[in-house]
Amino acid sequence: MYGFAESLSMAASGMRAQGERLKVISENIANADSTGETPNDLPYRRKVVTFKNELNRQSGINEVRVGKVDVDKSDFVREYMPGHPAADADGYVLKPNVNTLVEVNDMREAERSYQADMSVIETTRQMLMSTVGLLRA
Hints:
With 137 residues, this protein is an alpha+beta fold. It has one domain (4-136). The chain is 47% helix and 21% strand. It contains two helices and four strands, in the order H-E-E-E-E-H. The strands form two sheets. A two-stranded antiparallel ribbon has the order 1-2. A two-stranded antiparallel ribbon has the order 3-4. Strand 1 and strand 2 form a beta hairpin. The two termini are 26 Å apart.
């Protein structure tokens, strides 16, 4: 059974992790149309966040942390753009492996998780205030 402090700590760790995820998603979206400058340059490669459970030794509870930020090794998109400076001999340019629809869905999922953690914090705060109120009576 967890107390108020543990509940707040778990929710806060989830919020921090989702915040980092949102930063990576934002970077992916910002670079979705970037290309190299010459035919041999590779474009931006999509990044993905992995999470891990980590024991907080001070509180004795598992918290969510960003495990690592890695790159998505899926293929780049080839687009026919013969006048582009990064076009190869056949006129194709490598574009990032970022699908903005996937990124927007990931953003919504991260936002929902963040909001769920906010609800835990608000509910814990209300319970704490009710307890304080009962102790004053």
